[in-house]
From TrEMBL:
Residues 49-203 form the Peptide methionine sulphoxide reductase MsrA domain. It catalyses: L-methionyl-[protein] + [thioredoxin]-disulfide + H2O = L-methionyl-(S)-S-oxide-[protein] + [thioredoxin]-dithiol; [thioredoxin]-disulfide + L-methionine + H2O = L-methionine (S)-S-oxide + [thioredoxin]-dithiol. Has an important function as a repair enzyme for proteins that have been inactivated by oxidation. Catalyzes the reversible oxidation-reduction of methionine sulfoxide in proteins to methionine. Residues 1-23 are annotated as: Disordered. The lineage of its organism: Bacteria, Bacillati, Actinomycetota, Actinomycetes, Kitasatosporales. It holds the Pfam family PMSR. This is Peptide methionine sulfoxide reductase MsrA. The keyword Oxidoreductase applies. Keywords: Oxidoreductase. The gene is msrA. Belongs to the MsrA Met sulfoxide reductase family. Transmembrane segments: none annotated.
Amino acid sequence: MFLSRTPVLPTPEQALRGRPEPEFSVPERHTVLGNPLLGPYPEGLEVADFGLGCFWGAERKFWQTDGVWTTLVGYQGGYTRNPAYEEVCSGLTGHTEAVRVVFDPSKVSYESLLKLFWESHDPTQGFRQGNDVGTQYRSAIYTHSPAQAAAAESSREAYQKVLTGSGYGTISTEILPADESRPFYAAEAYHQQYLDKNPAGYCGIGGTGVSCPIGVAKAQ
């Protein structure tokens, strides 16, 4: 199944078992923003989780955004406990590569982060982004509150309309709660802020060129 040309998500029974504790440590601080990577975070900040293809370029999109306090990359939406990068890339864990964004809602809204998310990748490609093929590259939003869930669903509907008008297909982005059944597992140290450490490194992030109309309907 996992050697076929079309990627397929494993079932919980087929997924690798994983381990009770991670096999690696995560750096203490963000190399660009200087703030801690792991929580608990200061009071008043909020957390958003996004999957939009290879997390190297995806993370940079968010750390460059005013109001973002810290970012880190990891694995989310799968079954294997404390997975390693090679395991995720095998397609046998069910995870997607994700970016955790810790932000100050008084400086940047969740809706603004959603707009950046939609415009930074092609959410109609299923288990791939450009030349990156696999279930670990699928588009996803994991929400931390009913308000985030409602905003994400509304934004998906709004973006689908303009994508359809531009000749694109159906959005395949999964929108699910970031609850205990979908924990975020931080990735290995060398993945954190990868494009800051390797300015000429690979970045497979690319949008459709279609603007997401978040905020337009509200203003009208």
